[in-house]
Design goal:
The complex is a heterodimer of chains A (256) and B (259).
Chain A lengths: L2 H5 L5 E5 L8 H10 L4 E4 L11 H18 L3 E6 L5 H12 L5 E4 L8 H12 L4 E3 L16 H10 L5 E3 L6 H8 L5 E4 L9 H9 L4 E2 L9 H9 L5 H15 L3
Parallel strand pairs in A: 1-2, 2-3, 3-4, 4-5, 5-6, 6-7, 7-8
Chain B lengths: L5 E7 L11 H11 L3 E6 H5 L3 H11 L7 E6 L7 H10 L3 E6 L1 H4 L6 H12 L4 E4 L19 H10 L5 E4 L3 H6 L10 E4 L9 H4 L9 E2 L10 H9 L4 H15 L4
Parallel strand pairs in B: 1-2, 2-3, 3-4, 4-5, 5-6, 6-7, 7-8
Classes of the chains: A alpha/beta (256), B alpha/beta (259).
Chain lengths: 256, 259
């Protein structure tokens, strides 16, 4: 069996993507959905406004996500993007987009997870039954965005809301660090979306967290779909586990 | 169509930072799963030992039973006193198929006269020179690893000075390769390994628009890196099957002068 045929045996939902860059072109994004036979794709906004978006930029970003969903249809799974540095605005965004079919909350790098304002916004999202996807990075090199949350902060936030469901993105970048940070937080799942391709990440995730806390995502369009999904196919685990990672877990978390 | 598969970028041996599955049995299993006919590897010992020849000898000894199809780069640090001996050693041993330079970790300038000397001598010995941009992902390398990737201008200058010597670029990112100020058509002896290059959603589809595919190679970095995604990326890319099979293996047969 060829690699493409092997992939086609599975149902796949991409739980981490953005509508920026090449995916600002809705037609191209739709074409990719068909080409990759994706059942769904989580859109985490186009991150308009960079590291510290204004309320106006947040609105623009969420409106772009909504337009994409309206154009493409139900395969788009829209997450509400907020900047908790503007808590009142973030709460209003959750309220508004919750009424427009958005299904979860996305935090990027504009607020630490230990910031009290983040807790306020998180509480509101969880009260709606939304999961919270949080970008997290442990950076041994380079300058981090000033308010970027490292994995240990995600663990602290998750412990504060033990009934809430969190997704820590990128396994925290350096996977041993990230996975160990949230290992004991049963309410935190992880994705390994992106271009970091180190063998062992998914294996350690499955070992430490179990098969129901590891989620497939890509960070499209900045990363290659096949390169990301191939990491899961490579795993020496049962097909049932691969299927949980590739779709089952995000289906359960988003109640699809 | 019978497709020859050559992985031009295995990373083998004892990695100091985490356990990777690279015992002989692991490499055999990798070969069976990935279906490659031949592979070219770099051992961590030949890269990191104070004495790179001693490290290389250990790599060769450990994998001696696989020598029929598993070849190695001879990692050459120009500051090591016996670099010329290592070069001669490489040219005399069929298991060693190219010299590999890793200035990002050994910290020398690509425009140093000795680098030109090495490239020239390698060319005389019919040995390709592999320039490896990096070993680790820049963002998550261990904090104490000071990995300094050469500037793309330095790389471009290096390529234009290499003349008749066959040169292979490995572990450069797509964004870097596309930004290199070179005319690929005017560098007929330069090959690029695209197996571990951080492609975006369209990178491999668009490769034919800016790079001559007959000089594209494919090394995955396994088992330190995942291999199947990279291979799946190539399998799913929009290109002719003839070009794809060349990238998977046929082009490597040419650059390493294998029958």
């Amino acid at each position: 069996m060829g690699l493409i045929e092997e992939l086609q045996r599975f149902r796949v939902i991409d739980a981490h993507a953005h509508n920026w860059s090449l995916f600002a072109d809705t037609a191209y994004l739709s074409e990719c959905l068909d080409r990759f036979a994706l059942r769904g794709i989580v859109i985490l906004s186009n991150l308009t406004g960079g590291y510290d978006p204004t309320p106006k930029e947040i609105v623009q970003s969420n409106e772009d996500t909504a337009r994409l969903r309206d154009a493409v249809g139900e395969r788009i799974l829209p997450f509400c993007y907020v900047n908790a540095a503007y808590p009142e605005h973030a709460l209003a965004q959750i309220d508004y987009w919750g009424g427009q079919g958005f299904c979860a909350l996305k935090f990027w790098v504009s607020q630490h997870a230990t910031d009290e304002r983040t807790s306020v916004v998180t509480e509101a999202a969880l009260a709606r039954g939304w999961p919270v996807l949080y970008h997290a990075y442990y950076r041994p090199h380079g300058e981090a965005p000033p308010n970027e949350a490292p994995p240990l902060e995600i663990a602290e936030l998750a412990r504060r809301f033990p009934q809430g469901q969190f997704i820590m993105a990128h396994m925290g970048a350096q996977f041993e660090h990230g996975l160990r940070a949230i290992e004991d937080c049963a309410n935190v799942a992880v994705d390994y979306a992106g271009s970091i391709n180190e063998n062992g990440a998914y294996q350690l995730g499955l070992e430490l967290l179990g098969p129901e806390r590891v989620i497939f995502g890509t960070d499209l369009p900045g990363a290659d779909y096949y390169v990301n999904v191939g990491r899961v196919l490579e795993l020496d685990v049962d097909d049932e586990v691969k299927q949980l990672v590739l779709a089952g877990n995000i289906e359960r978390i988003l109640q699809l | 169509m019978i497709v020859t598969v050559v992985d031009t970028g295995l990373l083998l041996g004892p990695c100091p930072f985490r356990t990777i599955p690279s015992a002989v049995a692991d490499v055999l299993a990798l070969r069976e799963a990935a279906g490659f006919d031949r592979a070219v590897a770099m051992g961590f010992r030949s890269l990191l030992y104070f004495d790179p020849i001693a490290g290389l000898e250990q790599d060769l000894a450990e994998y001696e039973s696989l020598a029929e199809w598993l070849h190695f780069y001879a990692v050459l640090n120009p500051e090591f006193p016996q670099w010329a001996e290592l070069l001669q050693r490489a040219s005399a041993d069929r298991r060693l198929v190219a010299v590999r330079l890793v200035p990002a970790l050994h910290h020398y300038a690509l425009d140093a006269p000795i680098v030109g000397e090495i490239v020239g001598l390698a060319g005389e010995l019919q040995l390709p020179v592999n320039l490896m941009a990096r070993v680790f992902d820049d963002r998550v390398a261990p904090r104490f690893v000071d990995q300094q990737v050469p500037s793309m201008q330095q790389v471009a200058n290096f390529l234009t000075r290499c003349g008749e010597t066959r040169v292979i670029l490995s572990m450069f990112y797509f964004s870097e390769l596309q930004a290199l100020p070179v005319d690929w058509a005017s560098l007929p002896n330069v090959y690029v390994d695209f197996g571990c290059c951080k492609p975006n959603v369209a990178s491999l589809d668009q490769l034919r628009q800016w790079f001559p595919l007959q000089r594209a190679l494919f090394g995955t970095g396994a088992p330190f890196y995942y291999w199947q995604g990279s291979r799946l990326g190539l399998a799913g890319a929009r290109m002719h099957d003839e070009a794809r099979s060349g990238i998977l293996g046929r082009n490597a047969l040419e650059v390493f002068a294998w029958d």
